Amino acid sequence: MDQSDVAGDIANILLTREQIDAKLRELAARIDADYAGKDLLLVGVLKGAVMVMADLSRHLHTRAEMDWMAVSSYGSGTKSSGVVRILKDLDSDLTGRNVLIVEDIIDSGLTLSWLLANLRSRGPASVEVAAALRKPGAAKVEVDVKYVGFDIPNEFVVGYGLDFAEKYRNLPFVATLAPHVYS
Ligand code: IMP
Ligand code: MG
Fold first, then answer.
1. Is the pTM of this model over 0.90?
2. Is residue 106 within 8 Å of residue 138, measured between CB atoms?
3. Domains, the chain, ranges and CATH?
4. Which residues have CB under 8 Å from 113's CB, separation 6+?
5. Mean of pLDDT values over 141-148
């Protein structure tokens, strides 16, 4: 194999693009049913949620707007720092809006609980969360994630928007990395 090929860095594929796509269709159908007749503002959390937002939103039939926020919770490592900083705020006013936060993964839930409190303080009609992936640690915090794609084991994963040191976001599947990548 070519040393520059990303395939050599993958240990195990946890979720294929077909599995992810089928699950996002299901979530979109539930969201369509729940938001029928309402306005919907999808809020994507950069950069990880780019893939989920693109795919989930294209399965929706509901009229939806899209906005983006960037927050920092991780450095280039693999553990949540617990410190959340807004790097890019929303363009939209949330007053009276039905907000659906679109996330890649809920790990400790620290980022999300902070984000929920922050967005709820802006006077929206409702705030819910859709996440492609959830790890077991998320159960420890009181965050109610209404739409969850997959519950996955407590392993560090990349792909489908998720990075390790900003790489691997472009993989169309969710996978673990080979040990040599970390060393
Ligand atoms: P939390 O605050 O611990 O829930 O972390 C949420 C953020 O950490 C996610 O939006 C991701 O950016 C990042 N993260 C958590 N777990 C992983 C992982 O397994 N791979 C890559 N990024 C992760
Ligand atoms: Mg993220």
1. yes
2. yes
3. 17-152 (3.40.50.2020)
4. 141, 142, 143
5. 88
